[in-house]
Specification:
The structure is a homodimer.
Chain A: E1 5-6, E2 17-23, E3 26-43, H1 51-59, E4 64-73, H2 81-96, E5 103-110, H3 117-128, H4 135-144, E6 153-159, E7 162-169, E8 182-190, H5 193-205, E9 222-232, H6 235-255, E10 263-271, H7 274-286, H8 288-295, H9 301-311, E11 320-325, E12 328-334, E13 337-338, H10 341-348, E14 352-358, E15 364-371, H11 375-383
Parallel strand pairs in A: 4-5, 8-9, 10-14
Antiparallel strand pairs in A: 1-6, 2-3, 3-4, 3-9, 6-7, 7-8, 10-15, 11-12, 11-14, 12-13
Helix pairs in contact in A: 1-2, 2-3, 5-6, 7-9
């Protein structure tokens, strides 16, 4: 096990500065470095992508020195959205004294509505004057990009001088690949652009792509990784550190799923193939009936079996189901035999629950993260505009 | 257009008798004919099937004269479930003076709990003495098989002397192929067993398989069609009549989706392939964000576009979206241009809403049915046991 340390700098590692502010429904965050950084990126698989993705895709090969992000409006499915995204880059570039071609952009919020550029202009002006290399700067940026998130999300991990910092937002429209999520990562790892890109894609597979909030796929999902390349580094150590960071960020997003009262971690072990393990863990964590059962603190393991049997060819007598929370553990289904339901009920009262499914059919495993489905989720999304 | 007549006999057409009773959490329905009927059947695609399916599969080749159905317990994922399902057939056979090999069985309710056979015995005794060839008998049977359904569901259609009657239950755990649904159909059509089976499979594809309540797949989904073969009949007319019946039953189930306040019919037209049209219509009607938006009477067409773009390669400028209800019609998205949102808001206040999506990419089309996602859905499923 690598001895990974957690620090509190958020994405303001080394010479990265950040800040963010909110006003009414809009928020603006800016992230900036002294020099142009190498960039890796992963975007939504939706066939209609938000405007910022088209803009970023062009700029990434030349590197980015700053990113401007707004919340409150996704700048998607509207006329002139690409022009508006470029205008955001121009605004930030002007305030920061950079070339617009080195400024990236991202947006999150409602689709189909025209961006209020004057709002973003005002906020950008204020944010640019407050950029700071500190945990607080990162936290302010994390707060500014929130939509229905209830908490800002930032992380920083370090191993032998290699650092990865991150801010993110998640909450709803999270699935099945990426999420209505934004995540901005900074690192000092001196790796080539191709290596960074490969590492980020690999890391996303087992982190953000294993996150399920509501099964909806957003046009704007974006993960950007900026490296200042200050620290020589082996790709293997970097991958472990990056995987750790993206998984922890995915968990923060699952814990803050819209309306969620419980965090669910579903681990499928003993699968024949990796794909089976992934399919099964995602099917369970995204089943409405499993999610509502956990909300109701109801150990309805039959719904877990049904979700599993809907996607994999299984036999009940081979399935193990274990619930865990902290030190509590209940082996509720063992070779088709049910037991420990009372203990399971105690575990279901906890806020963070791990569900382990043994398929006894091979050696592959996978973990997916999600949350319960609550009346509050319905209220948030019935009224969101 | 064939002039299909609706009648009120439910599944008690010709010489079919039925009845049903409920007590506490259990319900029992019996359907019977004077002679052994030819049977067609479609079952769940789940890899772990409820016990009754194993029992029925053996008996269907020899024909069925009666069916016994219980609600309140799915008789799935428990020990000796097949033995218990067979015991149910024996009970009914004894009361009705039939051979057990000609009695089919079905169960619906919670999984993983032992069936209370003595309850079913008591109810079977009473039901068997009340079997009647009338609309009321059919309705009593429809009531007895309800779980979270709020209304019994029965239908009967006739064309030139060919009759198809049906009772069904749906409500939750409905998707993506069939549903936690049971549907029992009776007909007088004199067709071969293979023809009946082929017609039922074809009909299910465009009816029950296009129904989405919550994306969950049940182990017990069952559609059984019994024919007394009294009426010579062309397969083509029969297929039209059967399709009409199964679609109307699917709509009844969607209207009574768990906690639903609105019925949604999503029609995708102008698709390149039939599969595209089906995938798109099902993706839209099963999106949590689309469903909550309709619950909130919020014309958030961006969520419809997002659901579409998640499964098909589309361009916004080619998409048309129309909302309809009764005589009201709002063309809200036309070649990427938004309009008529005020009229759309009026339509969203209605209980039954049709959403028409034009892809302008071909000639194929499909319709899927579903309902909104409400706080009541969450409450029903958090507490169900």
């Amino acid at each position: 096990m690598m001895n990974i340390k957690s620090t509190d700098s958020g994405l303001c590692i080394d010479n990265f500065k950040a800040y963010g502010l909110r006003e009414d429904k809009y928020g603006v965050a800016v992230i900036v470095n002294d020099e142009i950084c190498d960039v890796a990126a992963v975007f939504t698989k939706s066939s209609i992508k938000g405007a910022h993705i088209h803009v970023d895709e062009k700029k990434i090969p030349g590197g980015l020195q700053a990113i401007i992000v707004n919340s409150g409006n996704a700048n998607a499915y509207v006329k002139d959205d690409v022009t508006d995204a470029e205008a955001m880059c121009d605004m930030a570039a002007k305030e920061l004294g950079l070339k617009s071609e080195n400024v990236g952009v991202a947006s999150t919020g409602i689709t189909g509505k025209k961006l209020k550029l004057h709002k973003i202009q005002e906020l950008t002006l204020q944010v640019s004057s407050k950029l700071i290399n500190s945990s607080e700067g990162s936290m302010k940026a994390a707060e500014a990009i929130m939509t229905t998130d209830s908490k800002p999300k930032q992380l920083c991990f370090e191993y032998e001088g290699i650092k990865i910092g991150a801010i993110g937002k998640g909450s709803g429209m999270v699935s099945p690949n990426l999420a209505t999520m934004l995540c901005f990562l900074t690192t000092n790892a001196d790796l080539g652009r191709k290596e960074l890109q490969h590492a980020l894609e690999k890391s996303t597979e087992d982190s953000f792509n294993m996150l399920e909030i509501d099964g909806d796929l957003s046009p704007n999902d974006t993960v950007l990784l900026l490296s200042n390349k200050k620290k020589p580094c082996s790709i293997d150590y970097f991958q472990v550190l990056l995987d750790h960071t993206t998984k922890e960020m995915a968990k923060l997003m699952a814990k803050d799923g819209e309306g969620a009262t419980k965090f669910l971690e579903v681990e499928v072990i003993g699968a024949k193939t990796k794909n089976d393990a992934k399919t099964a863990s995602k099917a369970i964590v995204s089943s409405s009936l499993v999610k509502t059962a956990f909300y109701g603190e109801n150990p309805n393991w039959g719904r877990i079996v049904a979700a599993l049997a809907a996607v994999l060819d299984i036999k009940l007598e081979k399935i193990d189901i274990v619930f865990e929370s902290g030190d509590l553990r209940a082996h509720i289904l063992k070779a088709g035999e049910v037991s420990n339901l009372e203990k399971a009920r105690l575990i279901l009262k906890k806020k963070e629950i791990k569900i382990i499914i043994g398929l006894n059919n091979g050696k592959e495993e996978a973990i997916a993260w999600g949350c319960d489905l609550t009346e509050e989720y319905v209220r948030i999304n019935a009224c969101y505009n």
